[in-house]
Amino acid sequence: MHRSIATVSLSGTLRQKLEAIAAAGFDGFELFENDFIQFNGDAAELGRIAADLGLSVDLYQPFRDFEGMPEPLFRRSLERAERKFDLMQAMGASLMLCCSNTSPLTVDDPALAAAQLHALAERAARRGLRVGFEALAWGRATSRYGQAWDIVRRADHPQLGLILDSFHTLSLKDDPAGIADIPGQKIFFLQMADAPLMAMDVLQWARHHRSFPGQGDFDMVNFLAQTLRAGYTGPLSLEIFNDLFRETPNRRTVVDAMRSLLYLESQVRERMADAPPPGVTLFGPPPRPVLDGIAFIEFAVDEAAAQSLGALLGQMGFGRIGRHRSKAVTLYRQGGIHFIVNAEPASFARERFDAHGVSVCALGLRTPAPEAAAARAAAMHSKRHHSPTGPGEATVPAIVVPGGNLVHFVDSALGEHGLYAADFDLEDADQDGAGLQAIDHVALGLAVDQLDTWVLFSRAVLGLEPGESLELADPFGLIRSRGVANAERTVRLVLNVSLSQRTRTAQAVRASGGGAVHHIALRCEDIFETVARLRANGVRFVPISGNYHDDLATRIELDAGLVARMRAAGVLFDRSPAGDYLHIYTESFEKNGLFFEVVQRVASYDAYGAVNAPARMASQAQQPPSPQTDPATGDTP
Fold first, then answer.
1. What angle, rounded to 10 degrees, do the helices at 250-271 and 451-460 form?
2. Model-level pTM greater than 0.90?
3. Dihedral of CA 341/347/350/355: which sign?
């Protein structure tokens, strides 16, 4: 399909926007009138810039408050339209968007609206131009696509057609099924915009909270499928009003924009596989990866931090089971958990350490088709990453994720330890474990403008689906949290953003340069036994107020003995209709905020204990400053 995007969707000057649009591979753009008004050049120059960039000017918009007006205002608007037509011809735009009237002077008379739009289309036709009529969700008399189509049909002019916008339809909960009955040649343009479900005035919702397809909650696939069933073969465009997008560097935003369209096309291609739409070719990437679990987590350290982190892992029951044959990299294991501690100088990991301190720099995800997973990621505009390898060492496909870390796709056929045999000198570990068995989930702290990016990346590239979006109370602000996971729940990520600059999450995000893993949750079978072993080994946990357990007993019907055990161990508790969740958090490692969570899932509990996050964050905020003990030596600086 011909892919387009409205200039209002991006930050920057008009030239900067167009350069970013072209760099992302779009075919054309919608020119938002305010961008042209503020452009330091004329229409002909804009047309030359677009042509030099290989872009078409697909739409000039918006032309407001036209139809259904008293005669004097109607005549004045016709002259206003002529001046817009002058500009369109000079820049090479052939289609103008006329949105439904919001003026209090408009008359609710479909016949009058049709007659006036016919007159406008007749003037456009004299210049070889076309007019598209769009129903705004807050239009005074016309707010639904069915009303707009009725007016276009009555006007009966070949140069007048319908413009559809998914937001205007879906925000009103209007059924898009009727779109399939509209003649495709009378749909002149299609604008796609997703959005989170929100209880607010539709105009404010539209002006500030739209998002790219795949980032919100609307059924975008059905909307596009219905439009294609009508026989539409025109541009597929994005028109996104979003405050964060107006702040975010446009080169990053356009990557999300293109990824969203490619992902949407691929979904519709799957949905319509039995009856492909005629006249259009939908994007068909390699299939979504099947993920079998998290193979490893890799930490970026230097030599000193490698010692400190290694000592902490030893306290947690991890055994050092291997050293890399050609690099300063150490492998730790407990149960099915593998941690890689990378202190190799002049490496990607060292670059991450130099920039952010001790941090997670890579995840390994198991999949039966690693090359196909990496190929899908590249098709969805993720960058491939190639790490240097020594003779006989394994080559593992890798990609760069939003924020700059890596995801490696590990062949499931290698088994639990097969990957490491190729690269490490393995040794038997006699370390007594603490009962930690698997990586339950990985939690990321993100900048506010990265949350939607990660939701889309998780869906389009990794094949994960998002859960409910929650807001959690921190002593210094609010945290927005959203989990993403595969259907089998073998890979779970939790995406957290701070809505305040004072929270610990915000501090960790600033330290990480915009987004990084801030804690790792490790699963066990008996949390009380595991915590007892960890405490005996010197692992320190975030203390929980006794008030929490007093309140817990009033909120949930629990055995008094269990509550007493949780109080003594410092364990938190959550319950859902599907099961229970017991968990506890370690203190942060060094000064970067990275910490661990120990969890036990009972029955089919499928959440992350978010209700208890405020207890953890409040406790961390109330801890007095204390010198950091080095677990390797017991010394304090």
1. 30
2. yes
3. negative
